[in-house]
Amino acid sequence: MEYIGQDAAAIEKYLCRRKVKVLAYDTADSTNNVAKKLLADGAQGEYIITAQQQTAGRGRQGKSFFSPKGRGAYFTLIMYPMYQGGQAADFTLVTSAMAAAVSQSIDAVFGVRTQIKWVNDIYLDGKKICGILAEAVVKGFDTVIVVGIGINITTDTEDFPEELKDKAGSLGKSVDRGLLIAQIADRAFSYCDNLQADDIIPYCRERSCVIGKEIVFFEGGREYKAFAEDIDSRGGLVVRLENGEKRVLRGGEISVRI
After folding, report:
1. What is the 8-class DSSP label of residue 88?
2. Rounded to whole angstroms, how far apart are CA atoms 38 and 100?
3. For the chain, does the N or the C end have fewer beta carbons within 10 angstroms?
């Protein structure tokens, strides 16, 4: 991997949170993988790790994330989210906070109105423009959260793999990537300094493209059809099954007609 100092400087000039270390690479297999290796090698503190392209970008459930060179923002945050009083943070709430931070930042920079597909995808005009992959890493007595974010900025429809062309979209215009990444990072780290559901969940409810829709989810190898009713105070998706039973989903993949 080639380190690109000027890309780091482009982020740092907009970053309000001065203690964050920024590493920028031309190519990485996955910025989440780079982050986890850094932690395994003894890295301390908060990081932003970005790459111009990923050769093996990853999404949830082992899926790949298409990351062509220079067409998107591909980066990972290393963070230590805590509740007030020093308790370890709830993982679903952390992911909800990341979705809120990304949605708010994209809207501010691009002047659009994005939606959140529970729990980790950002949509615009009915198509996925961003995926978020949060992973927990236990390091000593700390639980570190590694959050990978991939945003399609100028990816052309014909460039997407065939299986993604009907589902994936992009923001469609160039932008200062340093500004976008810095805004997301500042919001994300700010949320995670003192996680408060009241700061996060109302926004996730308002921007949800899932609430009020029929969905399909899998649990224990079985497919369930349900109606998405709400997002609870910890970021879980409240659903009603066909038999009337209510459940709260804390993770996993869902399918929904958007």
Report:
1. B
2. 26
3. N
229 CA to centre of own chain: 23
Cα–Cα distance for residue pair 111/126, rounded to 1 Å: 17
Q: What is the CATH number of domain 5-206?
A: 3.30.930.10
Q: What is the pLDDT of residues 142-156, one digit of tens each?
A: 778 999 999 999 988
Residue 196 or 101, more confident? 101
Domain boundaries for CATH 2.30.30.100 within the chain: 214-256
Is 136:143 a contact under the CB 8 Å cutoff? yes
Nearest by Cα to 8 from 201, 221, 178: 178
Helix (H, G, I), strand (E, B) or coil at 31: helix
Number of H helices, E strands in the chain: 5, 12
CATH of domain 214-256: 2.30.30.100
